[in-house]
Design brief:
By secondary structure, the protein is α+β, with helices and mostly antiparallel strands. The protein folds into three domains: 62 residues, no CATH class; 47 residues, no CATH class; 106 residues, no CATH class. Helices cover 22% and strands 16% of the residues. The strands form two sheets. Strands 4-5-6-7-8 form a five-stranded antiparallel β-sheet, with no helix packed on it. The protein has a three-stranded antiparallel β-sheet with strand order 1-2-3, with no helix packed on it. Helix 3 packs antiparallel against helix 4. The longest helix has 17 residues. The radius of gyration is 18 Å and the shape is globular. This is VWFD domain-containing protein. Keywords: Disulfide bond, Glycoprotein. InterPro entries: Mucin_vWF_Thrombospondin_sf, VWF/SSPO/ZAN-like_Cys-rich_dom, VWF_type-D. It holds the Pfam family C8.
Length: 231
């Protein structure tokens, strides 16, 4: 099963519209706001926005019994980079490629194995409040969320993405959007941070989708993947 474009899924090679439930009834796929949701009868819940973020939730009974990009779900961050055969690796590129589904036009190896390193933080201003630092600013638009959703991992992701894209504003907009969703899922208020000159393109995209630019859909931040190192 693959997400192809907003509102459609590809199941066994065929494009389907949501909601969808196969004859055997083992899972269902449906929309929740702008999000797509796949829910299986054994407790799995997959949530995605067709663009930036994918969240996988499983019952605790599966702890240590799964593999993939989210790790083995044992509550520890050590030893998460396991290949499909169970062998450990320290190479993130090898790890990502090992789990890549073949035949997807949106997944490729890009610049591998000669990907450029991110530039120094100073080169793209990552520590300033006008860049990724806004995620951690006690007076910024996320000030009411800092105590509920740890901004540090989101700041690290932002720094990597913005750095690799040489300070491109689109990467920053994407990073702030992901943290906004996590904050709203946690019930925190996020103050407006988009305007006519900052992340305006995303405002237009939300308006076309019929969603308020200040009320983006929320998703859990406990296990998330972003389109960055693994493509």
């Amino acid at each position: 099963m693959q997400t192809v474009c907003p509102l459609l899924l590809q199941v066994d090679g065929a494009l389907i519209s949501l909601p969808y439930s196969p004859p055997h009834g083992r899972f269902s796929a449906y929309r929740s706001g702008r999000l797509g949701v796949v829910s299986a009868d054994f407790g799995l819940r997959l949530t995605f926005d067709w663009h930036l973020r994918l969240t996988l939730a499983l019952p605790s009974t599966y702890s240590g019994s799964v593999q993939g990009l989210c790790g083995d779900f044992d509550g520890r961050t050590e030893g998460e980079l396991l290949l499909p055969g169970g062998q450990p690796t320290s190479d993130v590129q090898e790890f990502g490629e090992a789990w890549m589904v073949e035949g997807s036009a949106r997944c490729d190896r890009d610049c591998a194995p000669n990907c450029p390193l991110p530039p120094p933080a100073a080169e793209v201003g990552l520590s300033g409040v006008d860049r990724c630092g806004v995620l951690q600013s006690p007076t910024g638009p996320f000030r009411d969320c800092l105590g509920n959703v740890d901004p540090e991992p989101y700041h690290q992701d932002c720094a990597l993405d913005v750095g690799l894209r040489r300070g491109h504003q689109g990467a920053l907009c994407d990073a702030l959007t992901v943290y906004t969703a996590a904050c709203q899922e946690a019930g925190s208020t996020v103050h407006p941070w988009r305007n006519a000159t900052f992340c305006r393109e995303y405002r237009a995209r939300l308006a076309v989708s019929g969603v308020s630019p200040t009320q983006e859909p929320g998703v859990s931040h406990s296990h998330h993947l972003q389109h960055r190192g693994v493509r």
